[in-house]
Amino acid sequence: MYKRILLKLSGESLMGKQQYGIDEVRLQQYADQIKAIADTGVEIGIVIGGGNIFRGLSGTKRGFDRVKGDQMGMLATVINSLALQSALNAAGQKARVLTSVRMEPVGELYQKDKALRLLAKGNVVIIAGGTGNPYFTTDTASVLRAIEIEAEVMLKGTRVDGIYTADPEKDPSATKFKEITYDEILSRNLRVMDLTATALAKDNLMPIYVFDMDTVGNLEKVIAGGQIGTLVKP
Q1: Total domain count, the chain
Q2: Burial of 82 (0-12, 13-18, 19+ CB in 10 A)
Q3: Which domain holds residue 229?
Q4: pLDDT of residue 204
Q5: What angle, rounded to 10 degrees, do the helices at 138-148 and 195-203 form?
Q6: In what order do the strands lie in the sheet with 153-158?
Q7: Structure pTM?
Q8: Percent of the chain beyond pLDDT 70?
Q9: Which of 212, 162, 219 is nearest to 185 (CA)?
């Protein structure tokens, strides 16, 4: 049983069966699963992407300045964070949104000490806005926040049930890893996370567990020690 985790959620997964935005059913499923493990005493930090609303890198391909595009992507993560906070509050779970750039009263400015105090008081702490800087992904932000809040593990909730030798949606012969090292991810050029995030996790010995978050009940299984995904270890 983990005592403190950093959960990385995919913005795209929030779309559910929609093509854009936030699916209310998926949002509530996430909130219910998070509350269930919070009720067991696990301290939970969360970073959520913004790809269901806007991705900075894809915006540059349509003529946006990269810095402005990334800033728009940061704001998309804030929208998702506020939606998740609202769903958690409605489910009876205390949750606070901290932002990497100052934007009160939308959220309080992120500080490690503040995050730790809130976690100790039973709050789910949602850290929005990425790293607060352009050219960094929310995967990198997730690893950074996991290290800062001294999480035991970063749980990367995705639409697939782990890491494969190739994209299982494109290659039916792809096989799944139960465990894999950071060096092997780099040598195989597996697109689990961007290189910056992978290097940061490797340098700071932060284990990452990749699993399917969209299947209801999987988060509880991971916390209980169920082997349903892939562990990335130093």
Answers
A1: 1
A2: middle
A3: 4-233
A4: 97
A5: 20
A6: 108-109, 95-99, 124-128, 43-48, 4-9, 153-158, 208-212, 230-233, 179-181
A7: 0.94
A8: 97
A9: 162
Q: What is the CA radius of gyration of the chain?
A: 17
Q: Locate tokens 């000490």: which residue?
A: 113
How many helices and strands in the chain, by DSSP H and E?
8, 9
* Contact between residue 163 and residue 192 where contact means Cβ atoms under 8 Å apart: yes
C-alpha angle with apex 205: 44 to 35, nearest 5 degrees?
10
Distance CA 27, CA 19 (A): 15
pLDDT of 168 strictly over 90: no
CA 123 – CA 159 distance, rounded (Å): 26
d(CA 112, CA 127): 10
Torsion of CA 167, 216, 55, 79, to 10 degrees: -170
Question: Percentage helix, strand, coil, to 5, in the chain?
Answer: 40, 20, 40
- pLDDT tens digits, 24-44: 999 999 999 999 999 999 999
pLDDT band at 58 (very low <50, low <70, confident <90, very high): low
- Here the tokens at position 51 are 């790809």
- CATH number of residue 131's parent domain: 3.40.1160.10
pLDDT at 196 over 80: yes
Cα atoms found within 13 Å of the Cα of residue 92, Cβ hemisphere only? 7
Per-position b or e across 164-202, b if 16+ CB within 10 A of its CB: beeebeeeeeeeebeebebeebeeeebebbeebbbebbb
Burial class (CB in 10 A: 0-12, 13-18, 19+), 97: buried
Task: Give the C-alpha separation, 111 to 132, whole Å.
Answer: 12
Q: What does the DSSP 8-state code read for residue 15?
A: G
